[in-house]
């Protein structure tokens, strides 16, 4: 319930991303181009307490989805490192899903 399975890697350029929320809790997908030297957790912590310069250069994402819902969103990605996160609160403890491990980093070529 706290991760993503990609059918293909994200790539540089314009693309449509199809997101299917499998059974479990509501989720969202946020894709943020990382600033040099920054991590997905830096983005998550900035979202919780926005102080100083943002640790990302651009951010894209989908709206929250209920179980079984499907959404499409357009991305136009430059090559680089990206964080992928879910900020929605957990249904059990109310903590953001990224604190349950729902964050990763990918390199787009």
What does this molecule look like?
- It is built from one helix and six strands, in the order E-E-H-E-E-E-E.
- The mean pLDDT is 94.
- The protein is globular.
- It is 8% helix and 36% strand.
- The protein has one helix at 40-48; strands at 13-20, 30-34, 56-61, 70-77, 80-85, 103-108.
- Strands 3-2-5-6 form a four-stranded antiparallel sheet, covered by helices on one side. A two-stranded antiparallel ribbon has the order 1-4.
- It starts with 12 loop residues before the first strand and ends with a strand.
- By secondary structure, the chain is mainly beta.
How large, in whole angstroms, is the Cα Rg? 13 Å
Identify low-pLDDT runs: none
Task: Summarize the main sheet.
Answer: 4 strands, antiparallel
Proportion of strand residues:
35-45%
The strand order across the widest sheet is 3-2-5-6
Q: What is the overall shape? A: globular
How far apart the termini lie comes to 28 Å
Total of DSSP H or I helical runs spanning 4+ residues: 1
Along the chain, the helix and strand elements come as: EEHEEEE
- Relative helix content: under 10%
Number of strands: 6
Mean pLDDT: 94
Briefly note the structural class of the backbone. Answer: mainly beta
